[in-house]
Design brief:
Layout (H helix, E strand, L loop, with lengths): L2 E2 L1 H14 L5 E8 L5 E8 L7 E4 L5 E4 L1 H7 L3 E5 L6 E5 L5 E2 L5 E3 L1
Amino acid sequence: MIQISETAAHKIRTLMTKQGIAEGGLRVGVKGGGCSGLSYTFGWEKQARMGDEVFEGPEGAKLFVDKKSLLYLNGTVLDYDTSLISKGFVFNNPNAKTTCGCGSSFGA
């Protein structure tokens, strides 16, 4: 399971509106690469793909996650950092054994 914080959910809905996407959600995933071995991926989708897990948070915000990525993301809380220095989505991932300074890659 992946949880979506209220701040992240609000940002997802706001960005979807700006993109002109009424239905759908944010696809999150994991791919090989990055300074720690694995990196997070993001993309807007109008609907889930076959085999996806769909997680819904506050304000109806949805995340679409493929089964392979869910192995690395299970138990994660997606948040959104609103500080002036490091604004962006943040993964609080209990499966990450190491992380890099930029926060966009990790090792499992």
